[in-house]
Design a protein that fits this description.
The protein is mostly helical. About 60% of the residues lie in helices and about 0% in strands. The chain contains 5 helices and no strands. The model has no long low-confidence stretch (mean pLDDT about 80).
Length: about 90
């Protein structure tokens, strides 16, 4: 006999696929978009730190914190471009 909570009512729990769901409220739309932007910015910050590491550029704790806390995609884009040509992390974090 199955003693799971779903077996007593005869219902089965299925995962909900929200990938193609169209959010209705403005609040949900803005928060979902904001979440994606923050996740994208975090990925850019990680990429920037990887570029600096690959170029063997020393990154201070202060600069590392500034990079990882930044959620402005335009700023991160500028920093990534500068990181490709400068020799010091402090040079492009201005």
């Amino acid at each position: 006999m199955n003693s799971s909570p779903d077996s007593a009512s005869g219902s089965q729990t299925r995962p909900v696929d929200i990938k193609n769901y169209e959010w209705q409220s403005d609040w949900a739309k803005s928060h979902i978009a904001q979440g994606y932007a923050v996740g994208y910015a975090r990925g850019m910050a990680k990429a920037l730190l990887n570029v600096l590491e690959a170029r063997r550029v020393t990154v201070s704790d202060d600069v590392r914190a500034r990079i990882t806390e930044c959620v402005e995609i335009e700023q991160l884009t500028r920093w990534i471009r500068r990181a490709a040509v400068m020799d010091s992390a402090e040079e492009f974090i201005v």
